[in-house]
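Quick one: sequence plus pyridoxal-5'-phosphate SMILES, need structure tokens.
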Amino acid sequence: MNVPLLDLKAQYATIKAEVEAAIGEVFESQHFILGPKVEQCEKAIATYSKCSHAVGVSSGSDALLACLMAEDIGPGDEVITTPYSFFATAGAIARLGAIPVFVDIDPATYNIDTSQIRSKVTERTRAIIPVHLYGQMAEMDAVMRVADEHGLVVIEDAAQAIGAEHKGRRAGSIGHYGCFSFFPSKNLGAAGDAGMIVTNDAKRAEKLRCLRSHGSKPKYYHKIVGGNFRLDALQAAVVSAKLPYLDGWTAARQRNAKRYNQLLGEGGLAIGLPAVVTDRHIFNQYVIRVSDRDKLQAHLKRNGVGTEVYYPVPLHLQECFAYLGYTAGSFPESERAAKETLALPVYPELTDSQAQFVAGCVREFFACGPARAHASLNTVPALAGAAMERVS
Ligand SMILES: Cc1ncc(COP(=O)(O)O)c(C=O)c1O
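Reply:
Sure thing.
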């Protein structure tokens, strides 16, 4: 059996008619840049995220960059974030000449360890970027407490977490800004690069709209320097066409996660299962933790199962950030996660027999190999039962 990590063709087969009709409308109108399709998409995403404003942009990466630019963050400023994320999170900070200041992760959720944030705040700190990794929100109450105490801006990197929720609040709606990515492999993916920023602050939304068009307002008059961060009408049309399906897809991802937890949770295997500590984890990724990760990945590949490592090198150890002066050992939990985590296929169209096959291959790996229990794994709660109570 062949089980890819993600099967976008299977998804497309179920929405082809709507997507093609939406694209057709854009072609008929020949209105490709901003315009009514983008506005429609912005309204829909704002509503979905329980925010009052949304600004369509060219990607999740540009969303982060535009938010930092909107706050005039630049050389000498410090921005606190996690070293265990996609590169864009810290890349956006560094591109503006600001300094990424990393805080290690909570080993159970892989999100920023909020108990360590306060000690990293200096007089140069301007912002915090918590990342809602794998589709589960970071501990936002704690982040906002530190931010409020020190007058810091909070930019939620919700690229992997559209629709994630805790205590009735959606990802992106708690900080001053929330950034989404519609990269095709995300739960709500466009047909290319696209992104969006949500905010509850009308002034901030206004500035972002200006920044995404080279800071121009009115046209050809520039008070600030921005960039070309506009969302294409074609991408907006695709995202809008897919949005009504998102909750169904999320439910299917949650069902698959629950199934894996059942299948992998039995028999005391040395596997760390996802710890769900918030009300709505949207499972952009279903990530397990094993000490012999690379061997397990190779075993699964031999059996036709696609997996991925998010992420093999934590950001503080990336070559381009050597100038920041971090070394191996600076953030032990991020480094350990980079060695032990593995994402299994969890996409909505995954069938039960595919899930059983994947779990069977994982179990076979443990059955065949030498005992692979790893002392460090014992510190990671395998919350199969408790965790899934929260999966709606
Ligand atoms: C956590 C995180 N931040 C930012 C981004 C950047 O988004 P994009 O690929 O749309 O630029 C991604 C996308 O992979 C992401 O996963």
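The CA atoms of residues 256 and 346 lie 6 Å apart. Residues 370-392 have pLDDT under 50 and may be disordered.
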